């Protein structure tokens, strides 16, 4: 009976020790829980690209767009995506209905009142006048639009597209071929 109770006490203390150990241990991604994409303005991204060439990723959003908020919450908050975007791109979060004027390549883009809200001319230019939200626009180091990608992108889809763009695969590999060869781990 004494041996049995000692075994119970030993299991109990082992259990308590393990709980204490795991409550203080960090999960592998816990260090990145507070990591965020380094969003900057469009004009800052253009200026930085001239100093240190890097691709630009533009997240076109609106305040009322539910899918934009979902993408912020579920895609742009993932530690792996944060790290990759911060490494490979200058990231711009651009309000497609914002009123702030933006100068780019000798032209001043402005807000245009239309309907209930309106739109920003830069958003229209970046999407080739096919406004929808969210839209992710990829630009190369020469500030040329590679591709606007309309719609909500979940983390695995965004990961695949951003790797296609960020690794320069778009230059010499067909999208369909890249999709067959790349499997997102997200």
Helix/strand layout:
Elements: H1 2-24, E1 39-40, H2 42-51, E2 55-61, H3 66-74, H4 79-88, E3 89-95, E4 102-104, E5 107-109, E6 111-112, E7 119-120, H5 121-126, E8 135-139, E9 145-150, H6 155-166, H7 175-181
Parallel strand pairs: 1-3, 2-3
Antiparallel strand pairs: 2-8, 4-5, 6-7, 8-9
Helix pairs in contact: 4-6
What CATH architecture label of the domain at 28-154 applies? 3-Layer(aba) Sandwich
Q: What is the string of SSEs from the N terminus onward?
A: HEHEHHEEEEEHEEHH
Number of helices: 7
Taking all Cα atoms into account, the compactness measure Rg is 23 Å
Subunit organisation of the chains: single chain
Q: Which CATH class of the domain at 28-154 is shown?
A: Alpha Beta
Strand arrangement across the biggest beta sheet: 1-3-2-8-9
CATH superfamily of the domain at 28-154: Glutaredoxin
Sheet having the most strands: 5 strands, mixed
Mean pLDDT across the residues is 87
Strand content: 15-25%
Low-confidence stretches: 12-32
Overall, the morphology is globular
| Terminus-to-terminus distance | 52 Å
- The SS-based structural class is alpha/beta
Residue share in helix: 40-55%
Tell me the total number of β-strands.
Answer: 9
Briefly note the CATH topology name of the domain at 28-154: Glutaredoxin
Characterise the protein shown here.
With 186 residues, this protein is an alpha/beta fold. The protein has a domain at 28-154: 3-Layer(aba) Sandwich (Glutaredoxin). The protein has helices spanning 2-24, 42-51, 66-74, 79-88, 121-126, 155-166, 175-181; strands at residues 39-40, 55-61, 89-95, 102-104, 107-109, 111-112, 119-120, 135-139, 145-150. The strands form three sheets. Strands 1-3-2-8-9 form a five-stranded mixed β-sheet. The chain has a two-stranded antiparallel ribbon with strand order 4-5. Strand 6 and strand 7 (119-120) form a beta hairpin. Mean pLDDT is 87; it is low at 12-32.
